[in-house]
Amino acid sequence: MANQAPDQTPTEFRYSCYTLVVLTIVYIVNFVDRQILAILNEEIKRDLHLSDAQMGFLYGTVFAIFYALFGIPFGRLADTWIRRTLVAYAVAFWSAATVVSGFARNFLELGLARVAVGVGEAGTGPCAYSLLADSFRPARRATVIAILTSGVYIGAGFGIFIGGQVVQRWN
Predict the structure, then answer these.
(1) C-alpha–C-alpha distance, residues 60 and 114, integer Å
(2) 8, 139 in Cβ contact below 8 A?
(3) What is the dihedral of CA 42, 47, 53, 58, to 10 degrees?
(4) How far apart are CA 166 and CA 160, in angstroms?
(5) What distance in Å separates the CA atoms of residue 120 and residue 114, rounded to the nearest whole number?
(6) ∠55-61-63 over CA atoms, to 5°?
(7) CA dihedral over 25, 57, 72, 89, signed as positive or negative
(8) CA-CA distance, 55 to 48, in Å (whole number)?
């Protein structure tokens, strides 16, 4: 196969493609989560009696700071540990944190849940890039990374759609 690395068997190449698909789905779900909070902004504000500043802090500042800060140690861990296991733990952690977000009753609880979401989501990026770099030859890596990062925009689109459906049913 023309796209596989010279030292890959067809089976190994299929597994590399499978890895790309799974990681792209992880990115899609990751960004659905981010979009839904923004779409549900007014409903969450009303339900938890929050201000615009508090909401901006929750889905902007608090998430971004912890996502950025924890990306560095997760990158280091991705260099030294089993990356697919790290991705699995990260996805499980931020998924659980997202569920906890749904049960938040006030600003502090939602803030702590969003910190946990940011920390968990930070674990997927470094592992994804590292796994894919090891799985595909250099001549194909740009295409592979483009496919992976398409998950950002697909997830944002699905997030807007799903969030709109939730708002419609909420009201």
Answers:
(1) 10
(2) no
(3) -90
(4) 10
(5) 10
(6) 90
(7) negative
(8) 10
Query: The tokens of 15 are what?
Result: 């597994």
pLDDT tens track, the chain, 171 positions: 445 556 788 899 999 999 999 999 999 999 898 888 888 888 899 999 999 999 989 888 888 899 999 999 999 999 999 999 999 999 999 999 999 998 999 999 999 999 999 999 999 999 999 999 999 999 999 999 999 999 999 999 998 998 888 888 877
Report the alpha-carbon distance of residue 153 to residue 120 in Å, rounded.
Answer: 20
Give this prediction's pTM: 0.87
